[in-house]
Design brief:
Length: 176
C-alpha cells in the first residue's frame, strides 16, 4: 500500500511570450509579483523562433522571458495559477487579441509540468478546464523531452536555462 504524502512545493516558473514588450512590461511583472510574491529570477528577453503559431495574434518578432518566484508553492495550485494568468491575458488584450501569452508551470527536482487549457492524450486533468502537461523530465543529470514536448522546451537553450532554475530550486529546498 502506498501512503499518501504531501510533495515538496514547486518553483513557479512563468514563460511570457510577446512582441510589444513596451506595451506591458514592467507593469505585468509587477502585477505577477503582487500575486505570487517577489520574482527570484527574471531572464533577459530571448528570441522565440521555433514556431509561427503565435505570430498572427501576438505580432512579430516574438521574444520570451522566463520569470521564477522566490516563494515555493504547493503543486496543487497549478490550475488556479493558470486560471489567473488566463484572466491577465484577457484583461490586457485589445481588439480580441492578446498582448502576451503566459505559460505557468512548476519545476521540481523531477520534472517541469506546465498548465494548459487544451486536452491531449498525455495530459492529466486538474480542474476548471485546466490540464497538467508533463513537459520535461530530469533524468541522469539532464532534461529529457518527450515526443509531445513543444520544440521550444526541447531545445538546449531552454534546457540550460531550466537547469539553472533547477539548481536555484534545489538550494531553496535545502534551506531550513
Amino acid at each position: 500500500m502506498s501512503i499518501p504524502k504531501t510533495p515538496d512545493p514547486g518553483l513557479l516558473v512563468i514563460s511570457i511570450l510577446g512582441s510589444d514588450w513596451g506595451a506591458f512590461w514592467p507593469e505585468l511583472g509587477s502585477e505577477l509579483e503582487q500575486t505570487f510574491g517577489p520574482a527570484d529570477e527574471v531572464s533577459r528577453l530571448f528570441d522565440f523562433t521555433e514556431t509561427d503559431y503565435y505570430d498572427e495574434e501576438l505580432g512579430t518578432p516574438i521574444r520570451r522571458r522566463l520569470v521564477s518566484f522566490e516563494t515555493l508553492r504547493p503543486l496543487d495550485e497549478l490550475a488556479d495559477i493558470k486560471t489567473f494568468t488566463n484572466t491577465l491575458e484577457i484583461r490586457w488584450g485589445t481588439a480580441g487579441k492578446r498582448l502576451f501569452n503566459l505559460d505557468p508551470g512548476f519545476l521540481t527536482m523531477q520534472s517541469l509540468v506546465l498548465a494548459t487549457g487544451k486536452n491531449f492524450s498525455h495530459r492529466i486533468y486538474l480542474k476548471d478546464g485546466i490540464w497538467a502537461d508533463l513537459t520535461l523530465m530530469w533524468q541522469k543529470k539532464r532534461w529529457v523531452d518527450f515526443p509531445w514536448t513543444f520544440p521550444d522546451y526541447a531545445g538546449e537553450d531552454m534546457k540550460t536555462r531550466l537547469t539553472k532554475l533547477r539548481q536555484s530550486y534545489k538550494t531553496k529546498l535545502s534551506r531550513p
